[in-house]
Specification:
Serine Threonine Protein Phosphatase 5, Tetratricopeptide repeat; five-stranded antiparallel sheet; alpha+beta
Length: 339
């Protein structure tokens, strides 16, 4: 028994208190979930922030529910080709126990009878990264592991063998945060041909470096395009929208700390990113009104009511919920902004 097979046995026994033999346990986790999720993806760690992420596109419905796995402060996994989703959970659990991503990947591959049709990449919180492309993955198939820049790109069933090289170059050449660079990698893959079957779904999952124990906070981006003629373009649109709501959240936090100038800057940034979303200026105005900044919020209410008058009906209802003060004079002033 090799050290990797042994480590897998110890890990599974640790989880389940199992008394089965190593061979039986490995056979159990080797059962192939032969979903043909052929695709291209990237796993990466941002060396500056420590954020970890996976981005993926495929001609397969709901690729985001199968391929990308990530946990704040732990690691990220992309499992694809004839995919076995167990790689995601097992890989992250190995990393939780202190195993490096390359060692975790080798351990699981060695115990998988279907390894020849798998394509998997893993990266841990220290940026240690590795990938596997099985010898029976459908051509064009391959990967590039860039250890110095802490990422891996991988693809199978591609139109040509330029895809993963184009992804690496785009990621290295692009500016911006992790989400922006990962999107650039997906766009580059599609630009040189991408999946030979075409396009259908895409996903982006990015988690923070420092876990809070609250997954809804730790996940900075958790976006899925399930079925769309241009999934990467749609994914980019949603990333922009998510950024707008990030600014809204930061604005609300600034208001809680009574840093009104910072709050207004954050709200303004949100509106610039998503000027078509009337809900952004509406809730900005509500927050300002509830903080006593009535004169400043009235133009925002007027703008919202001019675009969608129905929002004026919501204003009196917010008093009961405590989102606006029980102040008849204030409510009257706000409602007078309606056309």
């Amino acid at each position: 028994m090799s050290k990797y097979t042994l480590s897998l046995f110890v890990f599974l026994a640790f989880l389940g208190g199992c008394e089965s033999s190593p061979d039986v346990l490995i056979d159990q986790i080797s059962i192939s979930t032969r979903r043909p999720v052929h695709t291209y993806s990237i796993v990466a760690r941002d060396p500056e922030t420590g954020d970890l992420g996976v981005a993926v596109q495929s001609h397969w419905f709901s690729v985001g529910s199968v391929v990308p796995w990530a946990e704040a402060g732990i690691g990220a996994v992309a499992t694809q080709s004839f995919v076995n989703p167990a790689y995601g959970e097992l890989g992250l659990n190995f990393m939780k126990l202190g195993t490096s991503a390359p060692d975790a990947l080798r351990s699981i591959i060695e115990g998988d009878a279907g390894r020849d049709v798998r394509q998997v990449a893993m990266i841990d919180a220290r940026g240690r990264v590795d990938a596997h492309t099985g010898i029976k993955c459908i051509d064009a198939a391959g990967h590039i592991v860039n250890e110095s820049h802490q990422f891996s790109v991988q693809a199978n069933l591609m139109e040509n063998d330029q895809v993963w090289g184009a992804m690496e170059k785009a990621y290295l050449d692009s500016d911006g945060d992790l989400a922006e660079r990962m999107l650039a990698a997906l766009e580059a893959a599609q630009g040189v041909g991408g999946d030979i079957r075409g396009k259908q779904s895409a996903a982006l999952l990015i988690v923070s470096a420092n876990p809070t124990g609250q997954s809804w906070i730790d996940r900075k981006f958790d976006l899925r395009i399930e079925d769309h003629p241009e999934p990467i373009k749609e994914l980019r649109r949603l990333v922009t929208l998510q950024r707008a709501y990030h600014h809204m959240n930061e604005g609300d936090l600034a208001m809680e700390h009574e840093d009104f100038s910072l709050a207004l800057r954050e709200y303004s940034a949100a509106r610039e990113l998503a000027p078509h979303i009337v809900e952004i200026p509406f809730w900005t105005a509500v927050t300002m009104a509830s903080s006593g900044r009535v004169d400043e919020c009235l133009p925002l209410f007027k703008e919202v009511f001019a675009k969608e008058p129905i929002w004026a009906e919501l204003v009196p209802r917010l008093v009961k919920s405590g989102l606006l003060p029980d102040d008849d004079a204030m409510i009257t002033r706000i409602l007078k902004q309606a056309p």
